[in-house]
């Protein structure tokens, strides 16, 4: 969703269905790390809410990063090269 500022805002969420707090926090940490390493690839002025889903429980860090980049490309929020 576009916002009228120059910066990006991002939020991370993981519902209780994913498991105990330790697991939910781990998933959010992995998502934050994927965002942190690739935030310069995302255009400014967007608000992101990244929600962890069930398949993330079995995914590794590389798969999460790949999925994050693919979703950003699908949403057309990557910086044009």
Shape: globular
Question: Could you estimate the helical fraction of the residues in percent?
Answer: 25-40%
The overall pLDDT, averaged over residues, is 91
Taking pLDDT < 50 over at least 5 consecutive residues as the criterion, the unreliable ranges are none
Strand content: 5-15%
Task: Note the run of SSEs as H and E.
Answer: EHEH
Count of helix runs: 2
Widest beta sheet: strand line-up: 1-2
- Report the end-to-end length measured between terminal Cα atoms: 21 Å
CATH classification, class level = Alpha Beta
Topology overview:
Elements: E1 9-14, H1 21-38, E2 47-52, H2 61-74
Parallel strand pairs: 1-2
Helix pairs in contact: 1-2
Give descriptors for this structure:
81 residues; alpha+beta; two-stranded parallel sheet; 2 helices; 2 strands; 40% helix; Ribonuclease P protein component; EC 3.1.26.5; tRNA binding
Characterization of this structure:
- It comes from Sporomusa ovata.
- It is an enzyme of class 3 (hydrolase).
- This protein has 81 residues and is α+β, with helices and mostly antiparallel strands.
- The protein has a single domain, classed as 2-Layer Sandwich (Ribosomal Protein S5, domain 2).
- The chain is 40% helix and 15% strand.
- The chain has two helices and two strands.
- A two-stranded parallel ribbon has the order 1-2.
- α1 (21-38) packs across α2.
- The longest helix has 18 residues, at 21-38.
- The protein is globular, with a radius of gyration of 13 Å.
- The two termini are 21 Å apart.
- The model has no long low-confidence stretch (mean pLDDT 91).
């Amino acid at each position: 969703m576009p916002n009228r500022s120059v910066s990006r805002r991002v939020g991370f969420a993981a519902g209780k269905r994913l498991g105990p707090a330790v697991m939910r926090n781990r998933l959010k940490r992995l998502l934050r790390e994927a965002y942190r390493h690739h935030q310069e690839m995302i255009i400014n002025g967007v608000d992101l809410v990244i929600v962890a889903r069930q398949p993330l429980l079995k995914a590794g860090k590389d798969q999460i990063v790949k999925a994050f980049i693919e979703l950003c490309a699908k949403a057309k929020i990557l910086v044009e090269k």
